[in-house]
Model the fold of this input.
Amino acid sequence: MPAPVPAADRSEAAQASPPQRPPSISAAVPEPFGLAITIDDVPWNGPMPGGDTAVRATRRMIEVLAQHRAPVAVFVNCRGGRTSRLVLDEWAAAGATVGNHTTGHLDLHATPLARWEESIRDCDAFLKRTGVRPRYFRYSQLHHGRTSAEGDSAAAAVARQGYRNAPVTIDNSDFLLATPYELAMRAGDTAKRDALTRLMLAHDSVATVHFRDVARAVLGRDVRHVLLLHANTMTADNLDRLLTMLADMGAHFISLDDALADPVYALPDRVRSPAGVSWLYRVGAISTDRMQRGGRVTTPVILYDGNCGFCDGTVKFVLPAAGHRPRRDLACAMALRSASDAEAREEASRA
Ligand SMILES: [Zn+2]
Done:
């Protein structure tokens, strides 16, 4: 087994190269938009490489959020235990909005409704024992129900327990890059880690541009957006770069309360599907298939589905492309090669 990368090296490495503006961002002055940052799967999702701890990584994220004056809402997978309690205390002390994400991260689509509802109740009791008064709920995997009956019953259960659903508009499936990132960290492979960081930022950039386009296509205007991130090493290491990039794109950071005051979040959920999708697809009744075919927006969603070789199995995530042709090889190429940014830009322009 390769030696783990020490925590000190990790934080240095995270600052080793300056943030690179991904190639898909226009150089024009960005149009401002409100953006609420939300982080799911607190206390932690995935392995913790190199002697780091969830508490230390959480403190790093809190520090970065404070530097950017970015309010945050975190959604807790209430597994109990000392780590959960310590991490939760950090977020609560930092003034984060703390929400319910079930106990056990239960998937509505794979769990009997009564058991799923019990997991919300159980998480609610855990959060309240820690002194939190949670108001928001986040569906695991953004699974809102495959049928009208299932979706309506689940929504009623959420409301019955005094919660409001906290939808997501900018969904980027970032967690799918987190495991290869953690493996690269463990292997001490800085080139791969840096390539994955560039890929993450490029992906978040195109996802943000894409969902702003979707809002305009569905509603005729932009909305106060809600971004979904996950509590993992990739997020903790790169949050400063990500928030810097988003601010450069016009984001001003707002609370979840402020974001959800936008009337878009009062519109009915019109999509019943096995897929967990953006709230903007839901209110626009747009399926991912339809988006892929061109649908009502000018920027198609590309479902990237290829074995990149840097992780076990298949990487599959929604990659909203800036262009109009599938860029099936781009993500792999960017992740696998320690290509210079100039090469990556050239590759993007060819795709
Ligand atoms: Zn989750």
About this structure: The longest strand covers residues 33-42. The two ends are 37 Å apart (CA to CA). The chain has a mean pLDDT of 77.
